[in-house]
Write a structure and sequence with these properties.
- Helix content is about 65%, strand content about 10%.
- The chain folds into two domains: about 110 residues, 2-Layer Sandwich (Beta Polymerase, domain 2), CATH 3.30.460; about 150 residues.
- By secondary structure, the chain is α+β, with helices and mostly antiparallel strands.
Length: about 260
């Protein structure tokens, strides 16, 4: 549905599927991340946004976690204006190679940033840690939809950080930077690090959540519902766990930086 509408719309210049959907290994918790580039005219007059809003509404009622990365052409082409770091650009290339291109040539239209991977890894980790901290005092007042979104952030956080840490350490992902490749290489390369212990705990909780979510989408009974409620709770403990993993990851990035400087 999304691909067809974007291809046919005159208001969309280029579009690209990203991440696990493009790689063909998406899970029930996976967001459908789609990069959309439009001309400045259609961005400013709201025509492109109308197309995406229509798709978002349809996706919402079908319980599809659709997430847009939406930008006008002038921002996309100027690397100092757009927020996407080098690792994101490399992921775009992987998605394009895996038939993720929906329309146009989004990779050619994007201005490539310098490879300041360490800086971006730290910025990303700190930003997410701040989000988890700030959520704790708001827990009692969050809507169910907001809780679900933040829980998704918590469970995607370890893989995203681990991928960035590996890139900072010089790993080039010869077979792609999908979840399984990151999971295996990170655990092996940094197995003596405190961050890996926290990573393993978060990933084990994530697997429980993915399993329960898969079951709740099928045949439902009391036991399945009870298990889903148990593993889908957003609470202080899991936010603190994700925060501790981020803190340990920042320490690991500092070690990587020092080892590079010493060479």
């Amino acid at each position: 549905m999304v691909r067809n509408v974007l291809r046919q719309s005159e208001h969309i210049e280029a579009a690209l599927d990203l991440g696990s959907v493009a790689y063909g290994n998406s899970e029930p918790t996976s967001d459908f991340d789609v990069l959309v580039i439009c001309t400045d005219e259609y961005f400013e007059n709201g025509k492109a946004a109308e197309v995406l809003a229509h798709l978002s509404e349809r996706a919402h009622y079908q319980h599809i976690p659709l997430a847009w990365i939406f930008t006008p052409l002038s921002i996309a082409q100027f690397s100092m204006k757009h927020p996407w770091e080098y690792s994101f650009m490399k992921s775009m290339e992987w998605s394009g190679n895996k038939n993720g291109i929906i329309k146009g040539d989004p990779i050619r239209l994007m201005g490539m940033r310098d490879d300041d991977t360490l800086l971006y890894a730290r910025e990303y980790t700190r930003r997410k840690m701040s989000k988890f901290r700030n959520t704790i005092p708001e827990l009692l007042f969050l809507s169910d939809e907001r809780r679900y979104t933040i829980l998704g952030d918590v469970y995607s956080f370890p893989i995203h950080v681990a991928r960035k840490v590996l890139q900072c350490a010089g790993y080039t992902f010869p077979c792609g930077d999908g979840k399984d490749a990151v999971y295996k290489e990170y655990r092996e390369r940094f197995k003596r690090s405190k961050s890996v212990e926290l990573f393993n705990t978060l990933m084990a909780l994530r697997e429980e959540y993915v399993s329960a979510l898969s079951q709740i989408m099928g045949e439902v009974n009391t036991l399945i519902e009870r298990e889903y409620r148990r593993v889908s709770q957003l609470n202080t403990d899991i936010l603190l766990l994700a925060h501790a993993f981020g803190d340990a990851s920042l320490d690991l990035l500092t070690e990587i930086d020092k080892s590079k400087t010493a060479r």
